[in-house]
Amino acid sequence: MRKPFLGTLAAMVSVGIFGTYKVVTYGAEAFPSSTVTIVVPFPAGGTADFLPRIVADFMSRSWNQPVVIENISGAGGNIGAERVARAKPDGYTLLASAPGPLAINHILYKSLSYDPTKFTPVTVLGTSPNVLVVSPKITARSVGDLITLAKSNPGKVTYASQGAGSTSHLTASLFESMAGVELVHVPYKGSAPAVNDLLGDHVDIMFDNLASSLAQHRAGKLRILAVADRNRASALPDVPTIAESGLPNFLSVTWFGVVAPPKTPEPQITELNRAIVEALQRPEVRSRFVEQGAEPVGNTSADMARFIAEESARWGQVIKTAKVTLD
């Protein structure tokens, strides 16, 4: 049986069946009493956009209030993150993001207009292992084949990423370091445009999250060579891990979390966490996550805070080891 990365997170998920809540009253204030906006700092169409949309639908039903997704992309997710960092801390503006703006960018960028460590954690939505996916024009059928191809053509094999500093960028840099190859980075503004160019044979390979690439692999339009988790993915039992394929201890798993502006009051965080965890416990939501190659989490605010700190330290080490720099 597959032991998914972050199994400890799954163990920290609150259990139990929640009822349906319209609004929760704290003193004289009802929350939420109007539209809640979830900012996704990447373009529509990728996993970072897809997962919060699933959850937002159930949050809206629970509260009988609109929950809308607003895509504000650019600068590796920093533009959308800054928007939320400067928003009123009342629980009505949230950020749903992949690791970059929450745990990585402050290490990579010389200066940011926001401090990600000041966000108020709500919960981790889910996790998805990164996978090594290649375009149809690439003849390599294994990680070993790809390494041989890259070594025979130094500086010619191109890789797409979700943007500078994204987990796809850092995973490729780690791959270069461990495999001893030289690749050419082609950054995009999110998974969707990167995958589109991979489909169009404009770039050669990509380290993408499984949730984003699984459908294209199943349709035969792209080819997943290996999974960057500790164990094989249950959705792809015949696809080996990168560690199995000759690079021991290679590990890269992405995740998607929700945070609120700095100093958002605890009662609002408690209600936001309750609504999201309730949604993630619903069988229809869980099945939609799993179908896309993502594993639902739904942990506490305190657990998420610890997890972000651990992830920041882990990716910081990758940045140091692979000597990643931004132009």
Commentary on this structure:
The protein has helices at 7-11, 47-63, 78-85, 99-108, 143-152, 167-179, 191-199, 210-218, 266-281, 283-291, 301-322; strands at 24-26, 29-31, 36-40, 67-71, 93-97, 120-134, 158-161, 184-187, 205-209, 223-227, 253-260, 295-296. The protein is an alpha/beta fold and 327 residues long. A hairpin with a 2-residue loop joins β1 and β2. The chain is globular.
Could you tell me the CATH topology label of the largest domain.
D-Maltodextrin-Binding Protein, domain 2
Uncertain stretches of 5 or more adjacent residues: 1-22
Q: Can you say what the CATH homologous superfamily of the largest domain is?
A: Bordetella uptake gene, domain 1
Q: Biggest sheet, open or closed, and with what strands and sense?
A: 10 strands, mixed
CATH classification class of the largest domain: Alpha Beta
Architecture per CATH nomenclature, i.e. the level-2 architecture of the largest domain: 3-Layer(aba) Sandwich
Taking all residues together, what is the mean pLDDT?
90
Integer-rounded radius of gyration: 19 Å
Q: Please give the count of helices.
A: 11
Q: Fraction of residues in helices?
A: 25-40%
Say how many strands there are: 12
The tally of domains stands at 2
N-to-C CA distance: 42 Å
Element string (H = helix, E = strand):
HEEEHEHEHEHEHEHEHEEHHEH
Brief account:
By secondary structure, the chain is of the alpha/beta class.
